[in-house]
Please model this.
Amino acid sequence: MKTHYKQIAIALIAIFLFNLNLRAQLPKEAPEDKAKRMEWWTQARFGMFIHWGLYAEAARHEWVKKRERITNEEYQKYFEVFDPDLFDPHEWAKMAKNAGMKYAVITTKHHEGFCLFDSKYTDYKSVNTPYGKDIIKQWVEAFRTEGLKIGFYYSLIDWHHPDYEIDRVHPQSARTDKEYKKLNKGRDMDKYRKYLKDQVKELLTNYGKVDIIWLDYSFPSGKHGKGHEDWDSENLLKMVRELQPGIIVNDRLDLLDKEGGWDFTTPEQYKVSRWPEKNGVKVPWETCQTFSGSWGYYRDEATWKSPHQLIELLIESVSKGGNLLLNVGPTARGMFDYRAQDRLKAMGDWMFYNNRSIYNCTEAPSEFSKPDNCLLTYNPKTNRLYVHLLDYPMGALTLKGFKGKVKYARFLHDASEIKFTQPRHNVTHQESNAAGDIMLKLPVVKPKVEIPVIELFLK
Ligand code: GLC
Model:
């Protein structure tokens, strides 16, 4: 009897130790090392997101399969006619570069499950469509040639894989637990987890250096969701870091509370009110945004943001220490829609003259308060402060509390001097009458720049 207990105890200890060993240890990293690893990204500030897949043919949102509860059989028509004959990744890369973007992240597979890369684990890939080629391969080569860093978006969610358990965001989502049980009979998430890991491995092995990976997304709360256990996130991430040691990883693996479980946070489609923090510490962040409401090409979507709004979005992000990843949804012929091209061009025109207030810049030190209708960014290396005039003032701009702090002031776009005066005391009708302020004298006519920028050399 006694030996029996002993055997059970030994077996339990063995199982415990085995599990401990299986549990992934994410690599530890000192904060300075992490900052160093992410330095290029932090300095770049502006990247392009690209959402492309079969949904570009439906042209009514990348979630069309879910929204209209389309089955695999019905969705197959898009696969059969997929042939982006005008696709030229060099043109895309040039447009991104000319807009001032320093990196780009493309969907290698979105929720629909269709792969733009030549994976040996599936037939559901661009190589098997009439187009017949590996899109990612060409894309990587072109973007690298233009000097852009490259990132892969890979959807954890998969609406095509036969072993992926149907959940509440799946096109065939059910109403009752019983229905779910019936639908998921025979589906084996172990097999899907392996598929997912194998594909990520292919992506991080077959395409050279990959600078960023965007794994999307987890929805663990509530019923019929999915989280880190479904993806085996820790082991997946461990593999990612082993295969591409320098890689930068987003935060959607459901490992928010794990040390080393993510590199940057990803506020989507909204402006943060201040620099995001975790446990009181400011964290790297990147907001991802669309030109209009949809990520995939949406023909009839009309709520396109104006160039002014988009430039402001970029400045805003940098003014709070963050990045902007701005999305293009190419058409099914492989082109950027004319509206996207217009906006990229407008951003490029602005960036050509004003990128110095974006690259290598961050939030201004707290001693500098921003004037009304302005945004501030700051370059710590050059000690220059940038005042962005969102709404052009009438002839003068008061900088409160700036007295004695500014050496020289000029417009950024043409390097023309801006004179400034010390305040005149006791002149109550003068706006600038406080002892600590300075007043910049601006031309009455707004310079021909969407959002003019003043460069201040600080003392
Ligand atoms: C959401 C959406 C997805 C899009 C992504 C971009 O997760 O599901 O369609 O790709 O956001 O951040």
Notes: The domain at 374-458 is CATH 2.60.40.1180 (Immunoglobulin-like). The chain has a mean pLDDT of 94. Residues 51, 62-63, 216-217, 268, 288, 295 surround alpha-D-glucopyranose (CB under 6 Å). The longest helix spans residues 2-22.
